[in-house]
Design brief:
The chain is α/β, with parallel strands linked by helices. It has a single domain, classed as Aminopeptidase (3-Layer(aba) Sandwich), CATH 3.40.630. It is built from 7 helices and 7 strands; from the N terminus they run αββαβαββαβαβαα. Helix 2 links the parallel strand 2 and strand 3. Helix 2 crosses helix 7. The radius of gyration is 20 Å and the shape is globular.
Length: 263
Amino acid sequence: EDYGSICRLAKKGVPVKLDLDVKSEFNEKDTKGYNVVAEIKGTDPTLKDEIVMLGGHLDSWQSATGATDNAAGSAVMLEAVRILKALNIQPRRTIRIALWGGEEEGLLGSRGYVKNHFADPATMELKPEHGKFSSYFNIDNGTGKIRGIYLQGNDKVKDIFTQWLTPFHDMGAKWVTISNTGGTDHQSFDAVGLPGFQFIQDPIEYNTRTHHTNMDSYDHLIPEDLQQISVIVASFVYNAAMRDEKLPRKELPQPRGNNQRGF
C-alpha cells in the first residue's frame, strides 16, 4: 500500500520525498496465537446443540498487510454472518464462526481447536462434540469469486452442494469437484472425519503475485468478488443449519500416531 500511495502521487505529478528510519524489534511479551470465535445460537429444541462452522485464518506473512491471504477470507466470513444477522434468521443449528491464528505456521489454530473439541487425529478418540458437528466451510484463496466447491473426496455431499449452487449459476458459481485441496484450515476438520470444505475461487493474482509476497496489500482486493463470496457462503451456512440432517460424512480415518504430515 505504501508503494501504491507513492505511485498514485507520482502519476498526479506530486513530488514524493521519503525519509526512512528503519527499526525492528522482537516482542516476546506474548508469544501465543489466538482464535476468534463467535456464534448465532440455534433455536430448534432437538438440533440447537449441533454446529455449522465457517471460517478462515486471520494471521498473515509479515512482508505485507496480508490482504488476500487472508484478510479477504476473514472479512467475507464476517460479512456472511452479518448478512445472516441482518436477515434475523433463526437457525435450527448453532452457526459458529472462527477466525484462526497460527495458520501460516501449520494450521495451528484450527488444529488445536479440533483437537480440543472434536478429536485428536493421532488417536482418533472422539469427543462428544464430534457427533454434534455438521460441517465447516473455509475461504483462503484470495480475492477471487467463488466458482464452486471441493468435495474433499466426500461424494455423499455432491448432490446436496450441486443443488445449493443452482441459485448462483448466474453469478458464475456452479462447479462441484470430488477433488481435494490443501494448505488451509478445512484440513484440520477433514483429518478427524468431519465434513470440511474449501470453495473454488478465481485465482486472480493469488499464486502469481500476492500470495506470501510484499505485494499482498489492500489495492489487490476486488470488492465485487468479495461480496459474491459472502452471499454464497451465507447461503451454504444457512442451508446446512436448516436441513433436517447433518451433512453426510466420509468414513473415519485411521489414527495418524504422531505423524501429522499430509494435512
